[in-house]
Amino acid sequence: MTDPVSPTLPAAADDGEDGGAIAPPPSGARRHRLTPSQRRLVTQVVGWVVGVVLVGILIAFTDWGRVTDRLLNAEIAGEQLPDVLTVAAKNTVLYTLLSFTLGLVLGLVSALARLSSVWLLRAYARFYVELFRGLPALLTIIVMGFALPIALDIKIPDLEIPGVASLSGAGILALGLVAGAYMSETIRAGLQAVPKGQTEAARSLGMSPTQTTLFVIIPQAFRIIIPPLANEAILLLKDTALLSVLGTTIDSKELTKFGRDGVSGNFNMTPLILVGIVYVLITIPFTQLVARLERRQQRAR
Amino acid sequence: MSAAADAPVPLGRAGEIRIVDLHKSFGPTEVLKGISLDVAPAQVVCVIGASGSGKSTLLRCVNRLEDPTSGQIIVDGVDITDPDCELDDARAHMGMVFQQFNLFPHMTALGNVTLAPRKVLGQSGAEAEEVARRCLDGVGLAERADAYPAQLSGGQQQRVAIARALAMDPDIMLFDEPTSALDPELVGDVLEVMRGLARQGMTMLVVTHEMAFAREVADHVVFMDDGVICEQGPPSQVLADPHEARTREFLSRVLSH
Question: Of B194, B125, B91, B85, which is closest to residue A201 (Cα–Cα)?
């Protein structure tokens, strides 16, 4: 498109510092009315104007009395605050830690089985990974929590930590199984990323395949996969919200269930906002930690 | 195959390698086409040849990092091509040094050297550490025991790798182009350690491009070409007065550098 008289001057340029003095375009040449730094300035100014206008509209049309009452109700927040931390946040963290630990064990075992020379072990591991990666986590939780007890009288016992918490065993098992299937692939990639020369060196010293895996391969694999595993942990933390579908006692609620019950109990959204803040307060420091690990990992290479 | 392959091979002594009609194929490509070679105890045998001639594969067959397609290899009196051979036991008596060092990067030099003695020989931590410090001292790296491989130069890493193999108190040492990945100024220290080992009477099978080392240290030089032993004999003959045209051509190419 080489239209000599280009009609497309950004409309936004009128908002620029030039005061709208539009010179007639010199015919036959591309116009450069603004220098690159002026163009950048225009973009910035437009960005700010749009943002301020949108916020202004939002403020102008908001019913502030209703918002402070129904969304940011200080009285309800104050009522909920002790329990949201001492019960719900604590349970969410415990669910995450326990299902992550279970997932890590299942993931490591199935990853090693996937790399085994024994066909049957590879088949078992593959079945496990494909099944629990293929099913929605919510379905797995419903199966463990409701379907098994109702249909087959299989009740997965709850996990009682006296004086600390009472947690749903079915929930931990379901989340652990799903997390393990995902971690299995990550761990397998890590094990395969360790150079073959490491195995050869260990075997040439007379170490058995098991010793080689334990003392040479696994330690190196886990250094490689710390960042993706940490990501897995963040996803798992948020997946504990799915456990809100399980029947719970007052003591075994995690954050989302706690927030939902708060909403229906008070006809008010404040509890959900409070719970959202707690999730973010847990994940942001963790995300920072992952970013730091990632940087350290890159430096070490 | 030939009658020699079917006849029972007399088992040898500690520190002895007997290779009988060894064949090795990778898929359709035959890399070793019938190699027979004896290495007597305390003998130093250097294997030379162009890349792709099969010399590294030969070495890797001796401790079964590669599985031979056919033929027999008897090390320390044990037929390691026997499917029922306790391979880990055989390997424990046979050190191997790699071109790329292959140190364990997550362990210090001391950790590298003590790992196998503790896990394979069942030595206590203190016992293994004493042996390891002696081995590191032997390669001139007593001061760097606590350094990680990434903190060491290539030449230092290779010397730690030699110490790691020696800590298992092997009868035989296999060297797979141990100086090929090193900067020229670092080659000397590694070769010096190897000279010392030869003087102490270690059986050594060395794949190398260092002709000067082969001439000086080897008792026997083997020139391999295209999967067969083309010429072998004392270094004074093979390196100085080769009979085969292919040996002469190889040497003229190598020595002109």
Answer: B91
> pTM of whole model > 0.80?
no
Residue whose structure tokens are 């199966």: A143
CB contact, 8 Å: A226 with chain B? no
Q: Could you report the per-residue pLDDT of A174-226, keeping only the tens digit for each?
A: 999 999 999 999 999 999 999 999 999 999 999 999 999 999 999 999 888 88
Q: Which residue of B has its CA nearest to A214?
A: B119
Facing residue for A197 by CB, picked from B95, B100, B116: B100
ipTM: 0.89
**pLDDT for position A19:** 47
Q: Is A201 on the interface with B (CB under 8 A)?
A: yes
Cβ-nearest to A205 among B89, B91, B105: B91
| Nearest-CB residue to A206 (from B65, B98, B116) | B116
List pLDDT tens digits, range A64-73. 777 777 777 7
- CA distance to partner chain A, nearest, from residue B120 (Å): 6
CB-CB neighbours of A63 under 10 Å: 9
CA-nearest residue to A224 within chain B is B106
Name the amino acid, one letter, at A190: G
A203-224 burial: b if 16+ Cβ within 10 Å, else e: bbbbbeeebbbebbbbebbbbb
